[in-house]
Amino acid sequence: MSSNSRRRILILAMLLIALAVGPAVVSAQQQPPPKPAQDEFLPIDQLPPGETLPAARLLIAAYAVVWIGLAVYLWSIWQRLGRVEQEIADVTRRVQDAQAAERPRPAGGAGR
């Protein structure tokens, strides 16, 4: 690469960085100073109604989602376990049937 192309790439990179950072600096300078009420503690009963969070409802909803998810997971394990037990019973029956078919049957005649 020639020094001329390196210089162009450097200028382009600096221009892109300036375009990316510039709006953030300008918007940070234009923010109004914080209100004095934001610097001190306010009891919850003095806050406007729009600034409170319904914590109890959110907590109950979160626990409900977790419990429902756990119940669905346990139900799916129970179903899969039932299928596995059925397959094991089928395989056991097949093996016993195969072993019974391979055993020689005793002859009906007199013993030797």
How would you describe what is shown here?
- The chain has helices spanning 3-29, 55-102.
- It has a domain at 3-29 and 54-101.
- It contains two helices and no strands.
Keywords:
mainly alpha, 112 residues
Strand content of the residues, in percent? under 5%
Q: Briefly note the structural class of the backbone.
A: mainly alpha
According to DSSP, the number of beta strands is 0
Q: Outline the biggest β-sheet.
A: none
Mean pLDDT comes to 80
The helix tally amounts to 2
Distance between the termini: 101 Å
Molecular shape: elongated
Gyration radius, to the nearest Å? 39 Å
Order of helices and strands: HH
| Helix proportion | 55-70%
List the uncertain runs.
Answer: none
What can be said about this structure in brief?
The chain has 112 residues and is mainly alpha-helical.
What is the secondary structure topology, with strand pairs?
Elements: H1 3-29, H2 55-102
